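Q: What does the assembled structure look like for these inputs?
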Amino acid sequence: MDYILKTHDLHKSYRKFNALNGLTMSVPKGSIYGLVGMNGAGKTTLIRIAAGLQYPTSGDLELFGTSCFDDKIVDARKRIGTIVETPSLHPEMTAEENLKMQFISKGLPNYDEIPKLLEFVGLKDTGTKKAKKFSLGMRQRLSIAMTLCGDPDMLILDEPINGLDPQGIIEVRELILKLNREKDVTILISSHILDELSRLATHYCFIDKGVAVKEISAAELEKSCNKSLYVEVKGTGNMSVILDRLGYEYKLMTDRAADIFGDVDITPLVMELHKNGMDISKINEKEESLESFFLSVVGGGHND
Amino acid sequence: MINLLRYNMMRLKKYGAFKISVITVAAVGLITVFLEKRQEDCYTHPYAHTYFSMVFMLILIISFLAGNFISKDYVDNTIRNKISIGHKRLDIFIANHITVFFMYILIALTWTTFYLLVGGFVLDTSEINKETMLVGGAVMFFAILAFSGVAVLLSTIVKNTLGGTLPAGFFYATLFIDVFNELIDSKLLNFLTDFLPNLQIVSLNTDKCDDKPVLHIVFSILIFIASFIGGYSIFRKTDLN
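A:
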């Protein structure tokens, strides 16, 4: 598998505080890679190192196969677009002028793409309004537009939906999915909004105290997030006898209710329970959420 | 590098205070010529004195504007836009130096054009000592180079609005050395009067030819080199947010 970004035992220390403690992770090419971790886990520090704003204390980071200590890393960075925490805009300039500055900085020859980018992020009608008068959501949208200048191969987005309204969140999500599917752009995204991340990411990295405690694909995560069928019955029969006979793995909540794990064939189950004097009063599918999985990984135990 | 210079020039175009300064200097130059013309029959104008006095004041003002130009990149965090898209830190640093030097030179040239050159057509310049002006001009040029180096160094080290005002504050505060030098006979103070670029220009205000131009130019070049090396060695390893 090709990896766009890799870290090897990455350490970053600030005087007495260790932000990264041997972080090792790999972002596959073409993935939407979600960075998940609590505040202070090291997500933004990692992104700053990837963007070239800071250097590791030890260890290495590779971008497109180039080490961050190699002079050629600047060529690799020309292929990425980055948002780090808060938007970096010229407050005295309009949205169009800010994009023009980015075009100039990147050496892009003409500005024809600017109106399209502004329309894409919903800022085409800002006119002469200066960026200092923008709302947080507008500044965030402009930042996203700036990362898209020059058709990057990879986007590194640190909390990109901060400050966006629900419509904006949907638009950014669709944009990310579109870029990934149609242009094969690899995306590294960190977000506290796990529900939103779960709709996007193809891979996850759970970071805690500067260490990657788990890397997992979305498919593997789905298997790991224990799905179960909650069944509640009324009647006189013994539920556990039936479930044992059918060979299901289960957990009794009460003598009339159970969580049944794995793939459950509902029709035979219902018929067997009915044959033995029990009728279903309640049945629903349950799934461990990304939040609970995250807590189980970083909040007290490692989920191997 | 060329993209960074274009970027900085675009920022400079938007820098209202600097544009106003350039226009004001041009206006002051013309007004000064006009006022001197009106009094031409009364006394012989100390051309060099007027010219270099004004240059000194302008340089202090531009130190403030130049410092703020550099520090604003940190305050607004727009410097990370340059680094994250692949510009080398050395290129960014050199581009900043070139831009700041350009700011100083543009102001000095504007003053020179509107006072010296226009005045040359309008006023009686027969008593101007050309050697004084040329030697003083050369010393001034390299002093400006040193000014720009120190301005970039200070605003790079102190990456906030204070860093923007530090260059002007530093040059203003060190003026007192010249005052103390008048009162106390000290080798250190004499040395600093020759060494510091702001005090070199102050000494040009006397209408007399600079008697140590080579020494002053060498000091200015050394200051520039030291501030460049010092500034870059700090900037290349600085953790940015």
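The longest strand of chain A covers residues 3-14.
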